[in-house]
Amino acid sequence: MRVAFVTQGTRVPASRFRVDQIVPALAAHVDCTVFPATPSVYGDVASGRLHGSWRKLAQPLSIVGRARQLRAIAAHDVAWIQRPMVQYPFAAFERHLARARPTVFDFDDAIFHGAWGLDGRKVRRIIEAVGHVVVGNRYLAAYVDDPARTTIIPTVVDEHRYTPRPDPDGPFTIVWTGLASNLRELAPYAGALRRVLAETGGRLVVISDRLDAPFLAGLPVEHIPWSPEVEAAALGAGHVGVMPIADTTYNRDKCGFKLIQYMARAIPVVASPVGANADIVRHGVDGFHAVSADDWTDALLALARDRELRRRMGQAARARVEASYSVTAVVPQYLEVLARVARHP
Predict the structure, then answer these.
(1) 258-296: per-residue pLDDT in tens?
(2) How far apart are CA 22 and CA 266, in angstroms?
(3) Domains of the chain
């Protein structure tokens, strides 16, 4: 079977984790070709992310690139479209492929909110056109609302790249990773962070494209500029990984991926029990759920004070990733979807 994986770009996180790292494992079973948008659908180029007017100028070029790819993509037995093919309201490319070949539409975030899908109209048109839909969690599956055509496959990590590390020596370190635009999720808990870091003499490590968080002023914060090359290694300094998110409709559809990254490195976690977070983290086993600022303070201090608790939870976290959130765990699901779509276009 020849499968065309259509992705949003070479450095787009969803493309890297839901396709690029999966393809080598699938290659033993099917013939895979990846067709990234060039430049990415956001206007990024292979060497990195452009900013300002340069990005706006580059972004429309992705439409030209996509048009040139259509014939080659359609020559494959199955087209697997990872998120919409362009960052514009129309769904013509996806619908064209769905008419030409058995097609899968894969998404792992609430792309149907706001500007992405014009309140969901574009995403809904794609879902209606394709033969099968793959989503990252049960909340997104509920949006699709078609169980017979929907498969849930979580966003995972390469367990050979994200390896477990021993509990580090040195000051107690809380680690957070993600886009700078999501740093605002830490703001309601800045007071809890301030208390914990003051009591423990610890620090907060932020792995992000930039550090834009005035509410963290005065805290001992170390910023590590994000890149695909450093993300896994940089997490190793953390004694605990955190993922606070507000209980909003958008956040309930998130896939909790940063938790999986922490847990793969055997780092215990503290997370808001919102959406997929509540499914990924088993409270008291591989981390803690926390809602109020007091919850966050208590959970972080418990982990700061008890190295054996960190070690035990970290081991449980790693085991959970290997069983459910690793490349090895999901490859059979990818193959089952491909076989099903090929049998029933």
Answers:
(1) 999 999 999 999 999 999 999 999 999 999 999 999 999
(2) 22
(3) 2-156+327-343 (3.40.50.2000), 173-324 (3.40.50.2000)
